Amino acid sequence: MAKSNYITRAGWNALDQELKYLWKEERPRVTQAVSDAAALGDRSENAEYIYGKRRLREIDRRVRFLTKRLEVLQIVDYHPRQEGKVFFGAWVTLENEDGEQNRYRIVGCDEFDPTKNWISIDSPVARALIGKQVDDEVSVATPAGRVMLYINEIWYEK
């Protein structure tokens, strides 16, 4: 399944800040460290040089990825028309068949974070919730089988 190109404004800003940090602070610092290590002589057994070059490749790879990704991402801001229904950026309180409640936020694939209960718009749960309202029941296919979820609350950060 292809990744969606949606992102919240805060998510876009975080990726942009990461790119700027890597390019303007981290990369020059590591480049200087590699240069200093190279000046010490034999590079074949120089750990600082070897690990510095590896870190530079990691930074360059991430910079390329972020540059390309930020060009195609589409920022989705809150709009009052979204009120009362589940759309991108929504916080949703769901209740399962056992009465357990969980709160999730629907975000882009670049910013999902299980520790914050942020789920990707591309996930089966988010796809099942889009367009639904409070008190709606949704059926979601999971690896363990179909699960029924009840929407108890929907809200947006404005």
Defining key terms:
two-stranded parallel ribbon; 7 strands; 3 helices; alpha/beta; 23% strand; 158 residues; five-stranded mixed beta sheet
H/E topology pattern = EHHEEEEHEE
* Unreliable stretches covering 5 or more consecutive residues: none
State the total count of DSSP E strands: 7
Radius of gyration: 22 Å
Structural class: alpha/beta
Strand content bin: 15-25%
Largest sheet: 5 strands, mixed
What would you call the shape?
Answer: elongated
**Distance between the amino and carboxyl termini:** 30 Å
Chain-averaged pLDDT = 92
Secondary structure: helix percent: 25-40%
Verbal overview:
The protein has 158 residues and is α/β, with parallel strands linked by helices. 39% of the residues lie in helices and 23% in strands. The chain contains 3 helices and 7 strands. It has a 5-stranded mixed sheet with strand order 5-4-3-7-6. A hairpin with a 5-residue loop joins strand 3 (91-95) and strand 4 (101-107). Helix 1 packs antiparallel against helix 2. The model has no long low-confidence stretch (mean pLDDT 92).
